[in-house]
Amino acid sequence: MPYALNAGIKIHYEVRGQGLPILLHTGGLGDLSAWEKAGYLAGLKDYKCILIDPRGHGSSDSPENVEAHRMKDYVSDVVAVLDSVGVYRSSFFGYSNGGRIGFSLCADFPGRISALVTLGACIDPGNGSRQLADFIRMKGMSAYFSSIEARERTRFPLWLRENFLNGDPEMLALEIEGFSKWEGVRAIARRIGTPILLLTGGLEDTGMRCLKISSQITSGAQVVVLRNLGHFGAFLRSDLVLPHVRDFLARVQFGMDRRFS
Questions:
Q1: Domain-located, residue 69
Q2: In whole angstroms, what is the distance from residue 88 CA to residue 24 CA?
Q3: Each residue of 2-24: pLDDT tens digit?
Q4: What is the pTM of this model?
Q5: Distance CA 66, CA 198 (A)
Q6: How far from 39 is each of 33, 35, 42, 121, CA to CA, in Å?
Q7: Could you report the per-residue pLDDT of 163-198, keeping only the tens digit for each?
Q8: How many separate domains does the chain show?
Q9: CATH of the domain at 106
Q10: Domain presence at residue 228
Q11: 8 A C-beta contact, residue 12 and residue 78
């Protein structure tokens, strides 16, 4: 089982396939197996997919203090994984907090990310982060998952429930608290010159937040709204997400988008 070491913290990763590299990073969703179960690996089989268990998830180490769950810690974990795999420059696909990590990567390590895709990352962590962390600590993962299903008015597949419930509520609470201290994408937008695709579920964001972010990023960004889908629901619809991702990556690769050529 491969690990990258970052300041004493072991970060588990896996590499699937051959081709141009793309690193796939979840947020609080669960471990790296979610990408395969949701259909993303099948749709990216001609890429070299680098899958990462974020700290506090899956087989990675779980530091027990909020100071180890700052944005810079998660960013440096990605750099450590890329170094361990032997990849200097890679595309990056981040879901939820994973997308926010992608923004910071592009700002702080612009040479390492060739193209950024985010899904469900246009809303910065808000003032309710502490209350959400306390709710998860008191009620547990099952109650939190049920509240998400109620908000999105759907029942998610069993594999997603199991993936989520296998997580440690304290680790998710620390991640939420740590990310609430992040300065936010608007504060770093002018430092981002990477080609970017911003995807969002329409029930989570009508697209206005993503458009505002796009206007502030130096390189601009393509915005796609997945109608009638929420934060989790959008991730599950890889059949809708992947055509946009593949087209975007191809346009960047072959210089077909004049903004980035």
A1: yes
A2: 15
A3: 999 999 999 999 999 999 999 99
A4: 0.95
A5: 28
A6: 10, 6, 6, 20
A7: 989 999 999 999 999 999 899 998 999 999 999 999
A8: 1
A9: 3.40.50.1820
A10: yes
A11: no
